[in-house]
Structures are given as structure tokens and as C-alpha cells.
């Protein structure tokens, strides 16, 4: 059975948002049309939200650094000295704010069909890109359990942004054993230059994620 994962189509990632994904607004109605397409026969539709505390570790402001600064994350687990390189972002998708809400048409669609909503990024001390887990793969959201409970073995991933949360959610899904496809028409990247897109496609192929 197959599920559609709709990743982070939230106000802060749209044109007037704090961390707008270029052309992100263009996918809102097509994603709704995809959800409602009877030929797809989605067994489950899941929408995800970035859902950060005001002082989340990924916010440049918290570190008194400029937005988009490079940053070395240290594992939040005691006695684990591992690090990961990342980016510090503008404050975005703070819990309970307008920016963290799903785009209004998605809220209406969610209420209409009753699809499940998964939050990620709500632990202050760690970064998240995947809707399944934090970047350290220590904390897991309820997404995998939810899909298993509904006998899902195939997932299709859409939403924002292709090169961050969509990509990482798809890679996690593939590693967990789901047949995984990103529907590129229903996503938009932050970085769309040729070099970035080549690297993205290579990474997806290495992780058995189809880009269709």
C-alpha cells in the first residue's frame, strides 16, 4: 500500500515567509490536486511541519551569527563526540506562530480528508531535516510507526524544500525499507543551480530513491 508524504508546506517556506523557498507557492495547488486524484489511490496522506521552539539550535539568532552561517553541530548525547557540518537559518516555523502553520489551502484539505500531521524539530538541542528522525538518528518521530500500523510499503514524497527536508525524508524512508519516490514536479529546491542539482540526484541514486 502507498502513502503520500507532504513535507513542510508551511507559511514560512512560502513567498512571504521567513525562509521562503524560491517558487514554493507554485506547488500548493498541484499538491492538493495530487492528494485528491482518485487514480492515485493513496492509502494514507501524511502532512509534516517544522515545529521549532523559539530558541532552536538551528536559528542563527540564537548563536548571534548572521543568517545562513556555516555551523558545526555537536551531538546532544552525552559522551558522543561526533559532529556534523550544517547551516544556521533565519528564525522560522516557531511553534504556535502563523509562519509555522500549514498553507491555508493545505489546512482546509487536511480537515477535509482527515490526514495525519507529523511535527518535527521540536527538540531544542538538535537539528532535523528528515520527518523520520533528527540528524543524529537518535530521536525518532512517530512517522515510521504510523506507516507500519497502516501497512504502508511504498511512499511518495512531495513538498519543501527538495534539497533539504524532502531529500532527507526520502533517504530515511528508503533506509527503513520503503520503496521511495520523490515526485519532482511537486517540490521546489532552495538551491537549483546545476552543480547542486547534480549532487542531489547523485545522493538520491546512491540511497535507492527514485526521482520522477
From TrEMBL:
Pathway: Cofactor biosynthesis; nicotinate biosynthesis; nicotinate from nicotinamide: step 1/1. One of its GO terms (biological process) is pyridine nucleotide biosynthetic process. Coiled coil: none annotated. Keywords: Hydrolase, Metal-binding, Pyridine nucleotide biosynthesis. InterPro entries: Isochorismatase-like_dom, Isochorismatase-like_sf, Isochorismatase_Nicotinamidase. SUPFAM superfamilies: Isochorismatase-like hydrolases. One of its GO terms (molecular function) is metal ion binding. Its EC number is 3.5.1.19. Residues 3-186 form the Isochorismatase-like domain. It is an enzyme of class 3 (hydrolase). It holds the Pfam family Isochorismatase. Belongs to the isochorismatase family. This is nicotinamidase. It comes from Zygosaccharomyces bailii (strain CLIB 213 / ATCC 58445 / CBS 680 / BCRC 21525 / NBRC 1098 / NCYC 1416 / NRRL Y-2227).
Amino acid at each position: 500500500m502507498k502513502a503520500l508524504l507532504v513535507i513542510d508546506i508551511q507559511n514560512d517556506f512560502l513567498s512571504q515567509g521567513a525562509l521562503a523557498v524560491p517558487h514554493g507557492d507554485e506547488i500548493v495547488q498541484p499538491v492538493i490536486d495530487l492528494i485528491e486524484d482518485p487514480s492515485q489511490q493513496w492509502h494514507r496522506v501524511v502532512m509534516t511541519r517544522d515545529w521549532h521552539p523559539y530558541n532552536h539550535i538551528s536559528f542563527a539568532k540564537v548563536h548571534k551569527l548572521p543568517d545562513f552561517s556555516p555551523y558545526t553541530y555537536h551531538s546532544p548525547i552525552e559522551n558522543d563526540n561526533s559532529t556534523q557540518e550544517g547551516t544556521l537559518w533565519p528564525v522560522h516555523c516557531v511553534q504556535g506562530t502563523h509562519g509555522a502553520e500549514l498553507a491555508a489551502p493545505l489546512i482546509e484539505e487536511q480537515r477535509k480528508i482527515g490526514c495525519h500531521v507529523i511535527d518535527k524539530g521540536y527538540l531544542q538541542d538538535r537539528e532535523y531535516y528528515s520527518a523520520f528522525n533528527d540528524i543524529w538518528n537518535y530521536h525518532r518521530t512517530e512517522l515510521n510507526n504510523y506507516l507500519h500500523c497502516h501497512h504502508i510499503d511504498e511512499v511518495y514524497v512531495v513538498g519543501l524544500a527538495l534539497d533539504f527536508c524532502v531529500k532527507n525524508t526520502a533517504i530515511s524512508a528508503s533506509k527503513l525499507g520503503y520503496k521511495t519516490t520523490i515526485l519532482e514536479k511537486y517540490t521546489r529546491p532552495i538551491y537549483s543551480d546545476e552543480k547542486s542539482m547534480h549532487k542531489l540526484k547523485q545522493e538520491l541514486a546512491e540511497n535507492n530513491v527514485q526521482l520522477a
